[in-house]
Amino acid sequence: MKLLFDASALLNIVRMLGADALEYLRGCYVLTLTPYEVGNGLWKEATLLRVININEALALVRYVSRVYGVVEFLEPRDWVSVLRLACELRITYYDSAYVVAAVENGLALVTDDEKLFRRIVQRKKDIARLLEGELTCMRTSDLVSAGVGAAEG
Predict the structure, then answer these.
(1) d(Cα 34, Cα 11) in Å, to the nearest integer?
(2) pLDDT tens digits, one per residue of 85-108
(3) What sign does the CA torsion over 47, 51, 54, 59 have?
(4) Which strands make up the sheet holding 108-110, listed edge to edge?
(5) 73: closest CA among 131, 20, 34?
(6) Residue 149: which pLDDT band, with cuts at 50, 70 and 90?
(7) Phi, psi torsion values for 37, nearest 5 degrees
(8) What is the DSSP string of 107-139?
(9) What's the half-sphere exposure (Cβ side, CA atoms, 13 Å) at 130?
(10) pLDDT tens for residues 47-62?
């Protein structure tokens, strides 16, 4: 199974697996916007939420930047569908980009964004109708506990 990780899932798998994340993520996919979303999330955790300090954020971004050397980057081909789906499902344009790219490329979407995950599950038929393709969606914890990795894909 080929996997597309959103920013929440990418950051969480690195936190869960540490150094083992590199091998786990090899050959998986992220969007070209993912590094910016990860960086913004770390900035938010360090400066606004103060759940980590700046040194922890810097260490994490250094490590995550190594991940970018083993994953494949892509972006959606149909930007009109990204906006249409975002409006229809009432999700962010960023989240919609992950959904569209996953369907266009036959990838399973890995997300730890609970709001997005629930919306995808609730609106699975609408997604299939709008994008003319099925979407498989999972959480990082389910993926890791099942032992599913890029090697199986």
Answers:
(1) 10
(2) 999 999 999 999 999 999 999 999
(3) negative
(4) 72-74, 29-31, 3-5, 108-110, 137-138
(5) 34
(6) low
(7) -65, -40
(8) -EEE---HHHHHHHHHTHHHHHHHHTS---EE-
(9) 21
(10) 999 999 999 999 999 9
CB atoms within 10 A of CB 147: 9
For residue 29, the surrounding DSSP H or E stretch is strand 29-31
**Which token pair is 91?**
């999700």
C-alpha–C-alpha distance, residues 63 and 15, integer Å: 10
AA letter at 18: G
* 111 contacts: CB under 8 Å, gap ≥ 6: 6, 8, 9, 98, 117, 120, 137, 138, 139
Distance in angstroms (rounded) separating the CA atoms of residues 34 and 80: 20
The mean pLDDT of 107-120, rounded to a whole number, is 98
Residue 13 burial class via C-beta count within 10 angstroms: exposed 0-12, middle 13-18, buried 19 and up: buried
Hey, what amino acid is at 1?
M
pTM for the structure as a whole: 0.92
Question: The tokens 């913004």 sit on which residue?
Answer: 40
Which residue type occupies 131?
L
Residues 50, 48: Cα–Cα separation, whole Å: 6
